[in-house]
Amino acid sequence: MSTWVQGKVVERIDWNDRLFSLKVEAEVEPFIAGQFGKLALEQQGERVQRAYSYVNAPHDPLLEFLAVKVEEGELSPKLQDLHAGDEVMVSPRPSGFLTLDEVPAGRELWMFATGTAVGPFLSILHSEDCWDRYERFILVYAVRELSDLAYLEQIRALEQAHPEAFHFVPVVSREAVDGMLQGRIPQLISEGSLEEAVGVPIKPARTQTMICGNPEMIRETVAVLEGMGLRKNLRRTPGQITVEKYW
Ligand SMILES: Cc1cc2nc3c(=O)[nH]c(=O)nc-3n(C[C@H](O)[C@H](O)[C@H](O)COP(=O)(O)OP(=O)(O)OC[C@H]3O[C@@H](n4cnc5c(N)ncnc54)[C@H](O)[C@@H]3O)c2cc1C
Ligand SMILES: NC(=O)c1ccc[n+]([C@@H]2O[C@H](COP(=O)([O-])OP(=O)(O)OC[C@H]3O[C@@H](n4cnc5c(N)ncnc54)[C@H](OP(=O)(O)O)[C@@H]3O)[C@@H](O)[C@H]2O)c1
């Protein structure tokens, strides 16, 4: 297959004035839930390309991406300007290792996301064969403001469909919201609030974690988890912490 295929935007969903999703029709190779592809646009004769995780499950006919407009960014503001019918270049080849087949067995799988990094976890949670892998899937989705929580309806539907196996913990850092934790993921782990909210301890013998998004959040969260005895998951030395940095 060629390096790029022409995709067509089918829909843009605006979650707020900077957070949006694009549904795109494009012929790409099969991917594994949790992987990412690339989107690109021509700008002044040059192709500007960036990585974006698939939000859709592998079996869905349309590709879906969740993105935030980075104010001074080269590509994301242009992606936000796309409308249904517009063309966007899509890399046909998926990449990335934030996938369940890279994560060892355990009792609970904790998925920690900041901002748009909830996307790969939604792809995993909507994939057909995920639910028999762990007793519980715990999605911790941290954003600045309530309006930054995308896909809430889909996530609530997962809670209803899997009341025992799925636990959702929304975290909002910059406002107090009833029924949601306030703060940042590493602090909420180290002070015990997350374990208390879920009712499950974080321990190397039972816990697996996947962490995605803001690199500083990942660095600090890994440090806290290592302090609790968890180790990075590498192919040669399996552990409990699997990460993907967005920048
Ligand atoms: C493996 C991988 C998967 C990714 N998946 C997604 C995705 O699903 N959705 C998405 O929006 N972005 C994702 N990104 C980031 C994306 O590739 C771009 O970096 C982002 O859209 C900004 O591009 P830009 O050209 O507008 O800004 P640039 O000029 O490239 O500026 C980059 C700066 O923007 C900030 N930034 C970049 N991405 C984000 C983000 N998601 N949230 C907050 N701040 C950010 C950082 O400060 C970074 O240094 C992913 C990156 C990687 C490496
Ligand atoms: N979301 C907004 O209100 C807003 C407004 C204007 C512009 N923007 C721009 O939009 C882009 C994306 O912003 P975003 O809000 O999606 O992503 P983000 O800045 O990564 O924030 C997402 C979540 O991660 C938390 N976080 C940040 N650093 C952390 C760390 N070291 N440890 C743990 N948690 C950490 C944030 O908490 P804190 O809130 O404590 O940082 C927030 O809850 C940025 O370029 C930003 O400049 C966003």
Automatic annotation (TrEMBL):
Top-rank taxon, per record: Bacteria
Its EC number(s): 1.18.1.2
InterPro entries: Cbr1-like_FAD-bd_dom, FAD-bd_FR_type, FNR_bac, FNR_nucleotide-bd, FNR_type-1, OxRdtase_FAD/NAD-bd, Riboflavin_synthase-like_b-brl
Presence of the UniProt keyword Hydrolase in the record: no
Keywords: FAD, Flavoprotein, NADP, Nucleotide-binding, Oxidoreductase
Pfam family membership, one: FAD_binding_6
PROSITE patterns to which the protein is assigned, alphabetical: FAD_FR
Catalytic activity line of the entry: 2 reduced [2Fe-2S]-[ferredoxin] + NADP(+) + H(+) = 2 oxidized [2Fe-2S]-[ferredoxin] + NADPH
The protein's required cofactors: [2Fe-2S] cluster; FAD
Domain FAD-binding FR-type: 2-101
Similarity field: Belongs to the ferredoxin--NADP reductase type 1 family.
Protein name, per record: ferredoxin--NADP(+) reductase
Protein source organism: Ferrimonas pelagia
